[in-house]
Amino acid sequence: MSQITILSLYLVAAAAFTMSRLPRFAPRARPLFIVACILTAAGIAIHGQNLFGLVLPQHGFDLSTGNAAAMIGLELAVIGLIAAVEPTLRGMSGGLILLAAFTALLMGVSGDAPDVNALAWQVRAHVLIALLSYGLLAVGAIVAVFALLQERRLQAAKLSSANRLFAPLETTEKLLFALAAAGFAGLTLAIASGSTFITNLLDQHLAHKFALSLLAWLVFGILLGGRYFRGWRGKRAVRLYLGGFALLCLAYFGSRLVLEEIFNRSWS
Q1: pLDDT 10s digits, 152-175
Q2: Given this model, what pLDDT does residue 106 score?
């Protein structure tokens, strides 16, 4: 029941954010924005409360696939609400919150979850940090796709009311690099904390995962350095970001697929 409530709150909020950016609703843009913020905040509160109870049950730790997706969805909603402070980003906020709405339905869905209940709290903290960092960078990947679509529309000179759903490219890129910086900081902490638990990369079947994660970290570091020192932007920056995120996805999903489906092994 709570999942339907969250879904409903997010869907209406996403619609209100989107409508507030369309010319035909311009006279009611502010009331729509206020309603959207209230509904999103309510959805986040219920989403977070339910998710906390599922991920951290009494004397346990449940990080199933459904809960992990719902946690990323919670990050989508939070970032969407924060981004909506900038009026030109409210169209994008609607898109992010729409995605968050459907991840809420995955809360509590059982799946192949890592067995972390017997592990020390330090390892559990590492897992949570890694997942939160991945979530931030996943949101950034969605923003990067928005930026690519926006640039293509500008190059094609497509002028319509839908253009108001896209923020100025410079504003979108600022949000993208803010997410990249936050995700990079989290990824740095995740790699540093995770390396303390590694005793033998080969025996623990972590060599590919660690190498790909480190390579992704390096790509994001180069991207942020290029932005800070050389002012990188546009397609080059967006594609580099998506390349780093693809490496990060491969580090987890690709390595896991090879180990479990092909070699019938798991990470230790």
Answers
A1: 877 766 666 667 777 888 899 999
A2: 86
> Three-state SS string across the chain, please?
CHHHHHHHHHHHHHHHHHHCCCHHHHHHHHHHHHHHHHHHHHHHHHHHHHHHHHHCCCCCCCCCHHHHHHHHHHHHHHHHHHHCCCHHHHHHHHHHHHHHHHHHHHCCCCCCCCCCCCCCHHHHHHHHHHHHHHHHHHHHHHHHHHHHHHHHHHHCCCCCHHHHHCCCHHHHHHHHHHHHHHHHHHHHHHHHHHHCCCCCCCCCCCHHHHHHHHHHHHHHHHHHHHHHHHCCCHHHHHHHHHHHHHHHHHHHHHHHHHHHHHCCCCCC
Boundaries of every domain in the chain: 1-114, 119-268
| pLDDT interval class at 127 (50, 70, 90) | confident
